[in-house]
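Practice problem 4.
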């Protein structure tokens, strides 16, 4: 490619015009950013799109923009579902929570969050002394997630609560602060995991038309500045 040929030309110029060794303060192999970060990937895509638009590749740019906007819209839909989940948790509408809390919405720690949802329901049933419903929920929904218990004795204490008059009687839940506070904590847990899953993506990033070229200029300048032999004259890359 032309860029590769240009880099070779730089190397030739450096070999013929130099003033001696140059100490490097930055390791070229050092990763200065996370290339797998979705926000970084989006920035790269938008810079390419701005360059394509400037150079007249309008059809290709429009196709690329449509595909990029799909991801942004998916994120907005997930954010909307999270808001509905938060409202449903605070209202104790567990049927709505289970309907919205799907693998599509929660990409990581899905089973852990399901366990937290069922545990909250169970504790509320114990708090209301609805032991038969609590037993059914324990057997059908909590038992399959026993390996996800927060402590070694947590599941045993859940079973023990079926014989208790209050949630705080079990050692694992001695600090339980009641229905509303525990719902708020569950919402915070959802929020934290959702933010980890879904970094902010902007539908209209603000970049100059020359941003991609500017970065390439900086990359070439860096290679010249920190080459093994610093040139006397600034080489022209063609």
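Answer key:
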């Amino acid at each position: 490619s032309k860029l590769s040929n240009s880099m070779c030309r730089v190397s030739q110029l450096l070999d013929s015009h130099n003033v001696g060794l140059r100490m490097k303060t930055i390791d070229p192999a050092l990763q200065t950013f996370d290339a797998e970060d979705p926000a970084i990937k989006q920035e790269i895509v938008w810079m390419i799109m701005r360059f394509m638009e400037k150079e007249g590749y309008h059809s290709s740019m429009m196709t690329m923009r449509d595909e990029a906007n799909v991801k942004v819209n998916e994120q907005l839909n997930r954010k909307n579902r999270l808001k509905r989940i938060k409202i449903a948790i605070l209202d104790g509408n567990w049927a709505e929570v289970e309907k919205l809390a799907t693998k599509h919405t929660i990409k990581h720690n899905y089973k852990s969050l399901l366990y937290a949802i069922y545990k909250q329901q169970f504790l509320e049933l114990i708090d209301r002394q609805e032991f038969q419903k609590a037993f059914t929920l324990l057997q059908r929904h909590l038992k399959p997630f026993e390996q996800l218990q927060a402590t070694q004795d947590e599941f045993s204490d859940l079973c023990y609560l079926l014989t208790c008059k209050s949630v705080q009687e079990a050692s694992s839940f001695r600090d339980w602060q009641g229905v509303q506070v525990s719902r708020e904590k569950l919402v915070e847990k959802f929020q934290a995991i959702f933010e980890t899953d879904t970094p902010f993506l902007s539908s209209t990033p603000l970049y100059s038309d020359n941003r991609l070229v500017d970065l390439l200029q900086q990359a070439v300048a860096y290679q010249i500045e920190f080459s093994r032999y610093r040139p006397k004259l600034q080489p022209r890359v063609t």
